[in-house]
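task queued by scheduler; priority normal; single chain, no ligands, no partner chains; default sampling; output format set to C-alpha cells
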Amino acid sequence: MGIAGRRTPESRSWMRDLALPGALLAMFSGLGLCWILAAPAGPEAAAVPSTAAVGAAVLLVGLGALPGLGLQPSIRVIGVAGGVWCVAALVSAWMRTADQAGESSLAVSVGQFADTLGEGAPEVVELIAAVLVVALASFQLTGRMDPPVAAYAVLGAIGLLAAAITGHPSQTAVGPVLIGAHALAAAWWCGCLTAMLVTIRGRAGWTSALPVFSRRAVWAVAVIAATGAITGLMEVGGLGELVAAGYGRILLAKLAGTAALVVLGARHRRRWVPAVIRHRSSETTSIRLAMGELLVMAVVLGLAVGLSTTAP
C-alpha cells in the first residue's frame, strides 16, 4: 500500500523523455499565438523553422554550460541537437529565399538559394556553427577528438547572436548590443534548465546543480528584464501601439509570460531550492517542477521568435 503512489524509475524516465518534445510544442504554441495577436499580419513564414533552430541552439548553450553546474552532458544529445539545428537553419534559409523572391517554397531554385546564402543571411552563420557541432560531436563519440564541452555552448551562442542581431533592432547603434545580451541571457537560463532536466539522474544531481543554477539565474533574469524593457520601448512608437499594433500585442504577451516566469522562479527559489538542499524534494518532484517552468519558458521563447520576425 505504501508504495502505490510512488513514481517508478520508468515513469521518471518517461517524464524526462517528454521534456524536449513538450518544450518544442510549447514553443510552436507561442509562435502560433503571435499570428493570433498580430492578425491579419504576423510573423514571417520562416519563423516556423526558425523556432526549431532557436530551440536547438538554446539547448546547446545549456548543454555546453553544464560543467559550470557540476554536470556532464550527453554527447549524443549534443549531436542530435546540432543535426536538428542544421536542418532547421537550412529550411529557414530556403523559406527566406522564397519570401524575398515572392514565390512559393517549391518554386525556389538552387541558384536563388545560393544567392541568399551568398548575401550573408544569418542562417549561414547558423549552418556553419551547426555543422561544427555535429562534426565535433561525431569526432568525440568516435574517440578521435576531445573538445571542451564549452565549445558547444560557444557555437550555440554564435548562431543565436547571428539570428538575433540581424532583425529590426539592428537599425539602431545600441540595438544589437541590447538584443544580443537579451538573447544570450535567455539562452543560458532556458538552456541550462532544459539541459539539467534531460541530464540529471537521481536526487543527488538536483541537490548539487539546482542551488548553483538558482543563484546565477537571478543575474540572467535581471539582464533579460532590463534589456527586454529597453528594446521594447525603442521598437514601439508609443504606449498606444502596445494594444493597437500586432507587434505591440505580441510584446505585451511576451512581457506577461516573462513576468509569470519571474514569479514562478521566485516561488521555486523560496520553496523548491531549499527543499532540494535539505534533501526533502524527491527526484520526481524536481522533474515535475522543472517541466512546468520549462513549458512556460518555451512559450515565451516562441513569442520571442515571432516578435523578432514581426514588423513593428
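post-processing summary
- The chain has a mean pLDDT of 87.
- The CA atoms of residues 275 and 281 lie 5 Å apart.
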